[in-house]
Automatic annotation (TrEMBL):
This is CD166 antigen-like protein. It comes from the Eukaryota. It comes from Takifugu flavidus. It is found in: Cell membrane; Cell projection, Axon; Cell projection, Dendrite. It holds the Pfam family C2-set_2. The keyword Zinc-finger does not apply.
Length: 578
């Protein structure tokens, strides 16, 4: 029994020792694996990475100048086949040609450049591995591993599976954007009018998926846009774009459908709209698709128009003015209205045409205006502007002429006119005479007034100088005469309504000379008589004053003599005047 107990104790110790050895071995293996993994990561992180384009030629550098070319004995390129295996590609010994060793997928695709770089044509995704350049220089062997990454832009970027139409507020699969055969897989962004769309779960959802080709390894990315359209999205342009290469698809637009919310009635006509013009009513609804039938309410009358949205009223009148409406056939409460105003301007002037009046008569002038708005009135006479409307209490010859009133209302205007003719027997207003410049002849002037134009005649023959234009019923006639004796000359004016005559005395040139000399003689005689009388009076007064100093008795007598002398002087003066 004691022996058996000892045996059991020994077995327990043996089992415990074995377990301990197994645990130590497990810990060693785990630590070794971690160390190998860390070493691999450090090696991988120290590798140079070369990026190449799919289908192009990759240039993989070797040595990078660390060893001089003349010191290199052998250069060999190999690649990592995975699972710790490597494949040889080519080798070159100094002063010898390059030997191609590859006999697998790299056969015919590899060569060596003058600087020992590996040239790999027709780059593929399977070339994304580590290529190692081994250099033998003397007793040293150095390896240069290079990691390869192959990029490929999408073959195309296009939008497909486009929705036929979008309904406002209803989430709809808008379209699918496809970026085909890319590496790495493309990331796609959707845009509306060049503004990126963001999936918000409330009207905008984006779902992306990637499909890898098992043969080429290229990735095709599909992005599906689900969108809830708004009215303002009508004519909006949607595109998609790749983030990596900034490729942009062709824009697409969608038909947005929505019910009519507003109706507008448009009135198309010339401005101003006047009688005789045409006007077109157009009913515009904002629904999509737009309604095709409308009701037009024409001042109590309803006209239905199908497959059109316009109605034309021809040859409008002032009675056309009023309120017009249009509405949807399937929803009469959806309507719009507009006020139509036909502008009019009627002008009646009384009298009109040619008006004949006798001088001194009254002319009643009447202007009647019928218009849709306020007006302005201006008057002209013979194209000259008048400050106010003419009044004719008693017409005169100067009132004769063409009168025109111009009535304006905005852009509209109407004109009316009449011609006033004033008739009457002629009257001579003035008959005068003037001495000619040479002093030999005289000019007789006869000024008359009347209408129609009076004819002028003289009772003496003379040379006609001129006749003034017949304006406002007035005429002036001049003649030149050389009278040889004193004459009485008459001027006679006449027309269909009567005549008038006036006379004037005209003296001859000789009579005028005798009269002049007579006047001069009388004046000179009077002047001489006045001088003599003045001198005598002065002498007499002087003597009278000297005598009065001696005796005062003679003063009274002297006064009487002075009176007699004054009376005599006055008598002589009267004779001289006669």
């Amino acid at each position: 029994m004691p022996g058996s107990n000892q045996c059991r104790k020994f077995n327990r110790r043996e089992r415990a020792g074995r377990i301990l050895l197994l645990l130590k071995a497990l810990l060693f293996v785990t630590a070794l694996q971690a160390l190998l993994q860390l070493q691999a990561e450090l090696v991988a992180s120290s590798l140079e990475t070369i990026n190449g384009l799919y289908g192009g030629t990759l240039v993989i550098p070797c040595n990078t100048g660390a060893i001089k070319a003349e010191d290199i004995l052998i250069t060999k390129w190999k690649y990592d086949k995975g699972d710790g295996l490597s494949g040889d590609l080519l080798v070159k010994q100094r002063d010898q040609n390059t030997s191609i060793i590859a006999n697998d997928e790299y056969k015919g695709r590899v060569s060596m450049a003058a600087n020992f770089s590996l040239l790999l044509s027709d780059a593929r995704l399977t070339d994304q591995r580590t290529f190692t350049c081994m250099v033998v220089a003397g007793a040293n062997i150095v390896e240069y591993p290079v990691n390869i990454v192959v990029y490929k832009t999408p073959t195309e970027l296009k939008i497909s599976d486009k929705a036929e139409e979008l309904e406002i507020g209803k989430p709809t699969k808008l379209a699918t954007c496809v970026a085909a055969e890319a590496n790495p897989a493309a990331n796609i962004t959707w845009l509306k009018n060049n503004t990126p769309l963001v999936a918000d779960g409330d009207g905008t959802s984006i779902h992306a998926s990637v499909l890898v080709d098992p043969i080429t390894g290229l990735s095709t990315t599909s992005s599906v846009l689900e969108y809830s359209a708004k009215k303002e999205d009508t004519n909006a342009e949607f595109t998609c774009r790749t983030v990596e290469d900034d490729l942009v698809s062709q824009p697409v637009t969608f038909t947005i459908t929505y019910s009519t919310e507003n109706v507008v009635l448009q009135v198309t006509a010339v401005d101003p709209l006047v009688e005789g013009d045409n006007l077109t009513l157009k009913c515009v609804a904002d629904g999509n698709p737009a309604p095709t039938s409308f009701n037009f309410h024409l001042k109590g009358e309803v006209v239905k128009v199908e497959n059109a949205n316009t109605y034309t009223i021809t040859n409008v009148t002032r009675d056309t003015s009023g309120e017009y409406k249009c509405s949807l056939v399937d929803n009469p409460t959806m309507e719009a209205s507009e006020e139509v105003v036909v502008k009019y301007l009627d002008v009646i002037l009384s009298p009109s045409g040619t008006v004949v009046k006798n001088a001194g008569e009254t002319l009643d002038l009447g202007l009647h205006i019928d218009s849709s708005e306020a007006t302005k009135v201006s008057w002209t006479k013979d194209n000259f502007k008048l400050n106010k409307e003419p009044k004719f209490t008693k017409v005169t010859y100067s009132d004769a002429g063409r009168y025109e009133c111009d009535v304006t209302m905005g852009l509209l205007n109407q004109k009316a006119s009449f011609e006033l003719v004033v008739e009457g027997a002629p009257v001579i207003r003035q008959l005068s005479k003037q001495r000619g410049d040479d002093g030999q002849h005289k000019v007789l002037v006869c000024e008359a007034e009347g209408s129609p134009k009076p004819s002028v005649s003289w009772s003496i023959n003379g040379t006609s100088l001129d006749e003034s234009p017949f304006i406002n019923g007035k005429i002036t006639h001049r003649i030149k005469v050389v009278p040889t004796a004193n004459l009485t000359v008459s001027c006679t004016v006449s027309n269909d309504f009567g005549m008038d005559t006036r006379t004037i005395n005209v003296s001859s040139r000789q009579t005028d000379g005798d009269q002049t000399r007579l006047v001069v003689g009388v004046v000179v005689g009077l002047l001489v008589a006045a001088v003599v009388l003045g001198l005598a009076y002065w002498v007499y007064m002087k003597k009278s004053k000297q005598g009065s100093w001696k005796t005062g008795e003679k003063e009274n007598g002297s006064s009487e003599e002075e009176k007699k002398l004054e009376e005599k002087v006055e008598e002589n003066s009267q004779k001289a005047e006669v």
